[in-house]
Structure formats: structure tokens, C-alpha cells
Design brief:
Transcription Regulator spoIIAA, globular, alpha/beta
Length: 96
């Protein structure tokens, strides 16, 4: 599965970023750039990162994603991860 990132706005005003494919050192920059752009341009209270279609995430990407989440939080936006598969969730938990 090819890596891709898309975004949409829910009725509540929260932004959903949908991620597909493998998230690793070569693709995490694109995801963080998308999150940063959304926070800078729209200033939403909440960004949900939907990981349902993520097939793999490496520990380097988890660290970069955590840094990106902290930066968004400093700007007043809460970033939440949702719908991670069991395998992706294990990597997220082990890397936290």
C-alpha cells in the first residue's frame, strides 16, 4: 500500500487526518508537515489522526509524531490518534 495523507473537517470543527500505508522515517515528514500546516492555518482545537489504514509504523516515526503532537499542543491544538490496528498500537505503546 502506498503512503498517503488526506484531511477533512468534521461537523464539530475537528480536523481528521487520514493516513494510509507505511509510516516510517521516509514518510513521517509528510505527515508532520500536514499536521503543522493544519495547526498553523486553521488553529483547530482538535486534530484526529486516523490510523486505520496504516499497515506499519516504525519507532523513528513514533518519536517524530510525538514531537509533532507536542508542538501542536503548544499551539493550542490537541492531536489524538485513533483506529490503530493491534500491531500499530503495540508499536505506539512500546515506543512511548
Amino acid at each position: 500500500m502506498t503512503f498517503s495523507v488526506s484531511s477533512s473537517i468534521e461537523h464539530s470543527g475537528a480536523v481528521v487526518v487520514t493516513v494510509r500505508g507505511t509510516v516510517e522515517h521516509t514518510t513521517i515528514g509528510s505527515l508532520c508537515d500536514t499536521i503543522n500546516h493544519i495547526v498553523d492555518q486553521h488553529r483547530p482545537a482538535l486534530v484526529n489522526i486516523d490510523l486505520q489504514a496504516v499497515t506499519y509504523i516504525d519507532t523513528t516515526a513514533v518519536g517524530a509524531l510525538d514531537a509533532c503532537r507536542r508542538s501542536a499542543r503548544n499551539g493550542g491544538t490537541n492531536v489524538m490518534l485513533r483506529n490503530a490496528s493491534d500491531a500499530v498500537d503495540r508499536t505506539l505503546r512500546m515506543s512511548a
